[in-house]
Predict the 3D structure of the following.
Amino acid sequence: MPLSQTNKIIVADAVSAIFERFDVASVERLLKVDYVQHNPAVPTGRATIVGFLPALKESGISVTTHRIIAEGPFVVAHNTYSNAKLFGADNLVAFDVFRVEDGKVAEHWDNLAPVASANPSGRTQVDGPTETVDLEKTAENKALISAFVETVLVAGQVHQAANFISQATYHQHNTAIGDGLDGLGSALAAMAKQGITMKYDSLHLVVAEGNFVFTMSEGKLGGKPSAFFDLFRVQSGKIVEHWDIISDIPEAMAHQNGKFGMVAK
């Protein structure tokens, strides 16, 4: 079995141990002692997670994983959390990113947002295809998405979007944007009219598996430092679907690791 697939199993077991079984022994087996945390509100280290298990169990929290992809040491899970008041809302959607090292989860990043109503095209934050296919195109699709983010989102060359996004099928899961290039253009125009700017400044991480490519970027939304976690589905060399979660980056955090830390593309 490829290492990336083994890492998927390790991560899935760790998520289950924390949010379903509340199992101290499994958490201690699956997480490194010096587990590095990038969630701004959670202190770093495995001991924090172990200490939090009783409160998680009492809260009745549960997790559903909708998609999971892996490349090298990185595993990305597209999750929803129910009964998640401990994290700020009854129901949350998340991108959880893990780095596995020597068979244990060593590092974690996430973006979370409240579950919202369907967007203008009737799509939710998590629906849509889940099957990973086209594994032989992983490198090609990763290069496409990396170029899209760097060219269109970071460099601001919006006129080149049609070179990357399918004009026939583009399903959008952002809560405020409808399908198609027209939906994207209308949303950007509405934001500009309200004086709201969205700027990607740097691309920190790209994780790809077949038709799915995830990116972790840093920038500003409405002038506030923000983390942009995006998941793209690629088909026939074009982006055909997009999910995202955007969150503010607070000045004060419960650790010294930062929102991104040292990650490699």
Q: What stands out?
A: The beta strands are 31-37, 62-71, 74-82, 91-101, 104-114, 171-172, 198-209, 212-221, 224-235, 238-248. The radius of gyration is 18 Å.
